[in-house]
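Design a sequence for this backbone.
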């Protein structure tokens, strides 16, 4: 075995060990999450048995049976699609507006001072108050979008602003000395520095958007919506159906956040390979 062969083998060993270690950590996380979910379901089952009243707390198997009957129906699928579109619209609007204004605020302190009162008012206003006001101003189908947009908007502004301020001041000073155009400074320095903050803020804003959208649907009751299904089931005192509708919203939120996390990881891996 030649020196070059031994060197290549030694060079590949740390990578192999690192890959196996990552797989082991991922497997342990999955197993821990599964065990936690099973424990929660067991606690739910025991609590339902102890209470003994389905109208107060139905059993997990009862909710599962109702969900199996409900989810294939046209009524549910139309509600699911409508809620998904509202959530994506609210998240997309908040991401675009919040990122743009946040980057501007991070780069220019005067813009940050101008935005501060608006962000303070939005953060201090209860979600329920925003939804009630939106009920007066907009049609029922737009109320959840407007409410979720306002709640997620400050999250994106803050993340983008912090990201813009994370740029290396030495690079910014060098760009100023060499008279680099502001547009180039923005695209080549500030935006790449802000990317990690933007991704973290976007993930938080996405989860918040789903919660506010469903809450807005419960109050505004558009024709097709998961929140409307929950409210209708509550009025009929069908607690198991309320759980089934709520489980759909939880799964929708969890699935979209999981996909978003995968996209972030893939982008990060692609960036490392490119580097």
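Sequence:
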């Amino acid at each position: 075995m030649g020196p070059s062969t031994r060197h290549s083998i030694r060079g590949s060993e740390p990578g192999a060990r690192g890959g196996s270690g990552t797989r082991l950590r991922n497997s342990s996380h999955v197993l821990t999450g599964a065990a936690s979910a099973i424990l929660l379901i067991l606690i739910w089952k025991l609590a339902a048995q102890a209470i003994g009243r389905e109208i107060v707390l139905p059993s997990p198997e009862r909710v599962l049976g109702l969900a199996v009957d409900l989810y294939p129906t046209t009524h549910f699928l139309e509600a699911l699609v409508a809620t998904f579109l509202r959530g994506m619209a609210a998240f997309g609007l908040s991401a675009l507006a919040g990122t743009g204004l946040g980057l501007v605020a991070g780069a220019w302190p005067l813009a940050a001072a101008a935005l501060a009162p608006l962000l303070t008012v939005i953060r201090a206003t209860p979600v329920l108050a925003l939804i009630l006001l939106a009920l007066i101003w907009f049609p029922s189908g737009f109320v959840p979008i407007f409410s979720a947009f306002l709640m997620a908007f400050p999250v994106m502004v803050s993340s983008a602003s912090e990201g813009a301020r994370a740029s290396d001041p030495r690079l910014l000073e060098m760009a100023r000395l060499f008279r680099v155009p502001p547009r180039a400074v923005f695209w080549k320095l500030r935006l790449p520095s802000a990317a990690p903050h933007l991704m973290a803020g976007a993930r938080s804003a996405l989860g918040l958007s789903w919660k506010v959208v469903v809450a807005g649907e419960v109050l505004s009751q558009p024709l097709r919506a998961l929140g409307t299904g929950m409210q209708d089931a509550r009025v009929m005192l069908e607690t198991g159906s309320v759980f089934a509708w709520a489980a759909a919203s939880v799964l929708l939120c969890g699935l979209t956040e999981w996909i978003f996390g995968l996209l972030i990881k893939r982008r990060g891996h692609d960036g490392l390979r490119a580097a």
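DSSP finds ten helices and no strands in the chain.
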